[in-house]
Write a structure and sequence with these properties.
The chain is an alpha/beta fold and 292 residues long. It contains ten helices and ten strands. The longest helix has 21 residues. Its cofactor is heme b.
Length: 292
């Protein structure tokens, strides 16, 4: 069995925005244009497209559109449960996945003898750190730098517009069918809220999501409540509406009394950072600063 290579790009367990790369190169040479690369999530696919890379395997997706470049590329299943046998048959040089799925996918990739890398898509800065590392690994440094420069200019201009404005206190609820958790600043949606200049009432933990009772949320007295979905957005938003209508405690929240409860777009506020973060930040700009 071949020796497995592992690249962990900006590992999620390191919350500080620094790059952490554990790279073990075999005899294959990046930069020759002949590497066979598989991407198992749509967020990862979009990065590969921006870096002008061909792919030999992509995920199935019923929500996010597949770039035209990869329309005819073999599909290997959903991001959380890629078809390992099919991946093995394709024999990619690298399989790239989001680091949020490392605990599920790492043992499977190891057992299959696949060479793999995990991208930190838990926040925007993590995504760009991963892009920097991919640029070096896959001989796409020029493309990676162009993406980094565009990001830094956008963020600089965006922040400048909101300098000196009072930070709004925000509670972020991430819904799953039948339940919900609180999103911290370490989650993707939390990082967007932070970039938009708001204060997360549950900042200060090293976790992305935490389970908190509603009595504790009430004590935090958020100015606004943002609701988003982990998956099945239609079902989750119906759950939120039902719970807010029937659970008596919500009527005591100042944000609810003032009508400051907002449902965020699933396509722009999902679990993984994507290049539509600009549209997501524009949405938050309207909610935080322009709605009145």
């Amino acid at each position: 069995m071949k020796k497995t290579k592992m690249i962990i790009l900006v590992l999620a367990c390191i919350i500080l925005l620094t790059s952490c790369v554990d790279q073990k190169q075999g005899s294959k040479s990046a930069g020759k244009g002949d590497l066979k690369i598989a991407a198992t999530s749509m967020a990862t696919v979009y990065i590969m497209e921006k870096l002008n890379l061909d792919l030999v395997a992509v995920p199935d997706s019923k929500i996010d559109p597949m770039p035209e470049r990869y329309k005819d590329v073999p599909k290997v299943g959903m991001a959380m449960t890629p078809d390992i046998e099919k991946l093995k048959s394709i024999q990619p040089d690298y399989v790239f996945s989001p680091v949020s799925l490392i605990s599920d996918l790492l043992p499977k990739y190891k057992a299959a003898g696949l060479d793999y890398g995990f991208l930190n898509l838990n926040n925007i800065e993590g995504m760009y750190k991963s892009i920097d590392d991919l640029g070096k690994l896959l001989d796409r440094e020029k493309e990676a730098k162009a993406l980094r420069d565009d990001y830094e200019k956008f963020i600089k201009d965006y922040r400048k517009k909101h300098e000196g404005k009072k930070a709004i206190k925000v509670l972020i609820l991430m819904g799953l069918p039948g339940s919900y958790v609180v999103a911290t600043e370490n989650s993707y949606v939390g990082s967007l809220v932070e970039l938009a200049g708001a204060e997360n009432v549950y900042a200060g933990t090293n976790q992305q999501f935490i389970t908190i009772n509603t009595e504790d949320m009430l004590q935090k007295d958020p100015d606004m409540i943002l609701r988003c979905a982990h998956a099945l957005p239609d079902e989750v938003m119906k759950m939120f509406k039902k719970d807010f209508a029937e659970n008596d405690i919500w009527k005591h929240f100042r944000a609810v009394k003032n009508g400051e409860v907002y449902d965020l777009s699933y396509k722009r506020f999902g679990m993984s950072a994507k290049f539509n973060y600009k549209e997501a930040l524009d949405d938050l700009e309207v909610i935080f600063y322009e709605k009145n």
